[in-house]
Every structure is written in C-alpha cells, then in structure tokens.
Specification:
The chain is built from 12 helices and 8 strands. With 305 residues, the protein is α/β, with parallel strands linked by helices. The chain has one domain: Aldolase class I (TIM Barrel). Catalyzes the condensation of (S)-aspartate-beta-semialdehyde [(S)-ASA] and pyruvate to 4-hydroxy-tetrahydrodipicolinate (HTPA).
C-alpha cells in the first residue's frame, strides 16, 4: 500500500463536473439531469459538482440552479455528495447563492474567484471568508486563473485554510509547485480540476478529482484512483495514459469542455442537449473524433483487481 498521507475527502473522491442537460429547445432538462446523475453515481462517482464551469453556470439562472440541485438530490438520495457552484463576481450574490444551495439540498459549495474585476489578494481572501462566514456549508475554493484572470496565491490559500468551513480546493491553477506547497502546509483537500492531473495530483496527497471526462467515462476515472489506492501504481499510470487521448480531445481541442462533453454524450444517446450561447455546438468532425476516442477507451476497460 502507498504511504502518502491523504487528507480526509470531505466531498468524496471521484467527483464529476456534471454538465447541465437542456432540452432541444434550450430549457433546463431536469429529467435528463436526474438520469445522468444516477448513471454517474452507479458507474463510479461518489460526488457530483453541479453548476460549475462544465455545468454552464454563467448562462443558467439562479432559479434553474436551485431546481437542478433539488432534482439531482431527489435522484441520488444520500448516495453521493452534491457540491453546488455558487460563485459569481459579486460577493453578496455569491452569499445568497450559497444559502439557497444549502436549502435545496447541497452538501457543499464551489466558490470561484471573483472574475473580471480582478481583485487583489486581500480582496480575494475577503470574498471567500465572507461566503464561509455566512453559510453553514463547507466550501470548496475554485482556483482557475485561466478563466477568472486572478490566481489564488499559495499564501492566500494557506490563510483561507484557517477558516473551519474552507475545507477543499478544486485546482485548475496549473501551478503544481504552488499546489504542493499548500498541501504541505495545510489540511485542505485538493481535487484535481484538470483531467491530465488526476493521477499526478493524487500521488502527492490530493483527495481526488473533479473530472469533466467523467461525464463520459466515470468508471475509468474512478479506476485510476482505485489502482493507486491499492498500491498498483503501474496500473494507475497505465489507466491515466490510456485516458489521455480522450482527455486531450475533450479539454485541449480548442473547444470548452462543456461543448465536447455534450457532443460526446449526445452521440452516446445520453442526456445532454445543446449548449447555450455564446457557446456553439461542436461540429461533426469534432464529435466524430470524440466518439472514436471514447470507443477505443471503452473497448479496453480497466481490469478488475
């Protein structure tokens, strides 16, 4: 068995950054969301992140977000943890969303760095602390400077870790050294938010992942972490590498992960529907490539231990 110290996983280990299904007319598809959530849980996810980046949070209303939490909670009962994306560029609005998420059935909240205004680090810390003070739910801090324009610096993250309700980080910082520094100095549960980092981050002490690719292959993502947990690091590496072509096609093909995930799920006959503007759907060539990568991976499933 591995000896790497693991932080307690407050939200589970294998989390999916779930898409938000829409009808062909563009309305929220709650039946589709319930069916997709049930599939993800059955096939290996012990946590779901709703209304994150992949869940099209910028283009769904507060009412839709609340309805989504309630519907998914009804579908999965207490079998899985629900983390609700509540982050906005407005601290007061974020606090309102966090309170509403708790009332709707979320177990925790995902709070992204305020975007566009590009606050300095003192203001970044104040934003997260205000949410943590106001809500009774544990907070997962979302560090994704490529989208927000502002990095949560390691010193700021270490400061945030002193708050008892700031318990986790979804890490899309692409600063592996900075992440290791925070892991070494805090008890924060880190979750890899970039699928190519699922195994590398887990190997240095992360709690798990929040995976976009898990929308399509939840069992494979879970199997990577399963292999590592039982000490089979060679198989864990093999499974991570086998997933790399699909990861690349879904996250590094010049299209947002929301677009590629919905394109692939639609090809698989799973609930997805269109993306909302300003996003545009994937073209046929991209969808064909996604399906081809998926089929190659699905044809070689992880061996049972």
């Amino acid at each position: 068995m591995t000896s790497t110290r693991k932080p307690a996983p407050p939200f589970g280990r294998t989390l999916c950054a779930m898409i938000t299904p829409f009808t062909e007319a563009g309305a929220l598809d709650l039946d589709g969301a319930q069916n997709l959530a049930a599939r993800l849980v059955t096939q290996g996810c012990d946590g779901l992140v709703l209304s994150g980046t992949t869940g099209e949070s910028p283009t769904t209303t507060d009412t839709e977000k609340t309805a989504l939490i309630a519907a998914v909670r009804a579908a999965v009962d207490d079998r899985t943890t629900l983390v609700a994306g509540v982050g906005t560029s407005d601290t007061r609005h974020t606090v309102e969303r966090a309170l509403a998420a708790g009332e709707a059935g979320a177990n925790g909240v995902l709070v992204v760095t305020p975007y566009y205004s590009r606050p300095p680090q003192e203001a970044v810390a104040a934003h997260f602390l205000a949410v943590a003070d106001a809500s009774t739910l544990p907070v997962m801090v979302y560090d994704i400077p490529g989208r927000t324009g502002t990095r949560i610096e390691p010193d700021t993250m270490i400061r945030l870790a002193e708050h008892p309700r700031v318990v986790a980080v979804k890490d899309c910082s692409y600063d592996f050294l900075g992440t290791q520094r925070v892991l070494a100095h805090t008890e924060l549960a880190y979750y890899a938010g970039c699928d190519e980092h699922v195994l590398p981050l887990y190997a240095v002490g992360a709690a798990g992942c929040v995976s976009t690719v898990a929308n399509a292959v939840p069992g494979h993502i879970a199997a990577i972490l399963d292999a590592f947990d039982r000490g089979d690091t060679a198989q864990a590496a093999e499974l991570q590498l086998k997933a790399t072509p699909l990861i690349g096609a879904m996250t590094e093909a010049g299209l947002p992960g929301t677009v590629t995930a919905k394109a692939l799920l639609s090809r698989l006959g799973l609930p997805a529907g269109p993306v909302r503007a300003p996003l545009l759907p994937a073209g046929q060539e991209a969808a064909d490539e996604l399906l081809a990568h998926y089929e190659r991976l699905a044809a070689d499933p992880p061996a049972l231990p």
